[in-house]
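Sanity check

After download, print the first record. It should look like this:
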Amino acid sequence: MTPAPTRALVAWAFYDWANSAVATVITSFVFSTYFTRAVAVSPELGTAQWSHAQSASALAIAVLAPILGAVADRGGRRKPWLAVFTLTSIVATALMWYVRPSPDYAILALVLVAIGTLGFEFGTVFYNAMLPDLAPRAKLGRWSGWGWALGYVGGLGALAVCLVGFVQTDRPWFGVGKEDAANIRATTVVVAAWFAVFALPLFLFTPDTPSRGTTMARAVREGLAMLAHTLRQLRRRPVIARFLVAQMLYADGLATLFAFGGIYAAGTFGMSFAEVIQFGIVLNVTAGLGAAAFAPLDDRFGAKRTIVLSLIGLILCGAVVLLARDKAMFWIAGSALGLFVGPAQAASRSMMARLAPPGERAEMFGLLALAGKATAFLGPALLGWATLAFSSQRAGMATILLFWIAGLAMVLRVRER
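Expected structure tokens:
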């Protein structure tokens, strides 16, 4: 394989910068908060509705991502699929502008969020599958890490624009008023535009794998057959199977951390909404720094060692967070924890890029998406049970460590070739 030119790889990495605006502004901070506080009948009902929409999306992703990946492998090309799902996410995000602060718009909001999430996640499958065809094998780790770091920076950049220009200002930009929460709704349009503009370089400058000349109908038939064969043969691919199980475990821990970290900070340490956002920003900054710093180590020592080191760091820092008794210690330990979040995610991508057989890469990244979503319900469920059983948020958050410890134990059994 002839490596792609640097310009093509930079354009590829900027897709991380582009799509992270959706995860940061829509899913994590602004629109999710707007929905639960202003659109839903009550914050409690809104939280439940939002959780149900995310769970439904996760189920659809778990079922369909491997199928779409297998079909794309039979057809050869990645960019047409990526374009369709990117446009789907952009359009759904832009249409969130029409979600006014009334329960009458709750269903519209949830449908658009679900569609936007599906477009985002399906697009990521094909985006990730492009990496091993673009970067030389000796530099897979650094390009994966740099892309992930750009994602954190891009998400923060979009969040900063939204907060400064529309949310935390008396005079929103472009003459947008505040009636019917127009300034908050405008952030969805900003995110859609951000995604479209910064995703464009990939489609202009990054080469695609050539088409195999297979019709869509034939690609679907062969892709489904190939996926069924792959699933049956996973037991004969113990390295990939173990890695998928390991990733499922520690990804569950990370997803639960993202979903409940702010709730823990507010409930246990009395942090205000503004402080929770500030802590989220700091966590994203340290995660981006960690992803960038660990990227060369991935190529030098291997993705497995990078994941192992990251999980050990997460476990140790997570334990300190749980033992912290004051807000200052929580800030220090929580910020340090972020340094290991990014490398764990970036090295997982480079690990699969190295393990996936040529001709099955999109399918394997589809399976990776399946592993990341198949048990997404388990982390929140276990956390909720432990919190109620022990009447303690600390006990609930401690369950996250169990996922990381189990994931570490499984990763240690993966033989990286």
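If your output differs, re-run the checksum step. Summary of this record's structure: The chain is about 80% helix and 0% strand.
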